[in-house]
Amino acid sequence: MSSLLAILSEQYPGREDQASQLLSLLGEPTDPTPPFIFIYGPSATGKTSVIRSLFTHYDQSGQRYAYINGVECFTPRLLFERVLNAWAGHVPSLDNKFANYTRCENTVEFVNNVHDLLHDKQGQTHYIIIDQAERLRDRGPMLLTMLLRLSELTNASICTVLVSNVVWDKFRPRHGGALEPTLVFFSNYTKQQILSIIEKDCPKDEPPKFFLTFVDAIYEVFHRNCVDLDELRHLVTMLYPKFVQPVYEKQANRSEFTRLFKLCQPYFSAASERLYLREISTSEWQKYSTEVTTETAPEDVTQSIYQMAESGDGLDLPYYTKFLLIAAFLASYNPSRLDAQYFSRGKTQAKRRAKAVAQDATGGKDRQQLLGPKSFNIERMLAIFYSIIVEPVDSSVDVQIQIASLVTLRLLTKTSAGDRLDGIKCKCNVSLETIRTIAHSVRFEIDRYLYNFA
């Protein structure tokens, strides 16, 4: 155990306490183990990396633990069959026609299969590790309770390990019956821990001390707005070549850190507003940032960088507000009778949309594009909004306030009476070019949803 703790401490600086706590809970393979361990903490704090590395070394055979991703196993059947495959050492392949260890449709079959599989292995503890476990809350209340009490149901030594960004209070089933977990908390990294981790990314041909000085400067610039370790590492990777570029161009020495920082300042400003907010991709940043050198005037450097995400409409809106404006445009220019063809979700969605496009390709004098935007109910716009957005809207997002902001900005025009509280009607007040630019910024193909547009 001490050698494994040393390996984990070397690989993951700042996570020595968590690794030691987990190893003490697991113990030896034949030691009794808590039936439920709950690992939680903010994102990018090493939860997944530490737990995967720990079990890779702890059980090198790989047949005593099953690692499950809550996003990949989006149905109970997928979860059950992945667990049984891992514990049985079964790997779906071409030889077995990619068949699973056994077919498992429901919880009763799963409990019976686990009992049959582990009845000869009573001396060893088996583990179910579910990463992004918050997805289990959408699979029904009984699934989580069954997984936590699987050891009792099968009379086998089983430990369920849940890894999540959400606290346990938001997991606890309302009907009761769930075990209280042994908690392992992964806190945010301190500054020294972040520097120690990013120091491992130092290029081989660069002095570690010089690289660490740059990392420290990056942390001081961005840490107030960015506490995510992955984002900071990404920024360091993108900005360090520009920071060290004057050294290779004989514009400054490595000892002139203040001068190097001043020459790189335009890139810092552009990165905070473009790269970090993902208004441009990493490849776009690398492409455009290589077009300028330190011999270029600072204002030219800034202008070149800002051309990466230049938009003609000048609209700087939040993410969900952009989708609300797209939904408003579609509601203003598409007939309501075609909403089911364009926005219904199901197997025939693509077929319906293709049929609608084929029927409306000829156009005509009465096209809504020529007549201008028409009024629509707010309820219809919201239905379109929830249909076109890919992921569920965060509960902290107040959609009504964002609609009011669009009205205030005159991007939406209210057409119903001012004192009316229900059945409010609006119409969209932006051009086709503007909405295409906004749709492009959120990677939404609006042309596929427009009716009778030339």
Describe this structure in words.
The chain is an alpha/beta fold and 454 residues long. Helices cover 48% and strands 8% of the residues. It contains 20 helices and 8 strands. The strands form 2 sheets. It has a 5-stranded parallel β-sheet with strand order 2-3-4-1-5, with helices on both faces. It has a 3-stranded antiparallel β-sheet with strand order 6-8-7. Helix 10 crosses helix 11. The protein is flat and about 75 Å long.
Q: Give the averaged pLDDT, no decimals.
A: 81
Helix count equals 20
**Contiguous runs where pLDDT drops below 50 for at least 5 residues:** 291-314, 356-363
How many E-type strands? 8
Rounded to the nearest angstrom, the distance between the terminal CA atoms is 69 Å
Structural category: alpha/beta
β-sheet strand percentage: 5-15%
Tell me the radius of gyration: 28 Å
| Largest beta-sheet characterization | 5 strands, parallel
Strand order across the largest sheet: 2-3-4-1-5
The run of helices and strands is: HHEHEHHEHHEEHHHHHHHHHHEHHEEH
Anisotropy-based shape? flat
What is the share of helical residues?
A: 40-55%
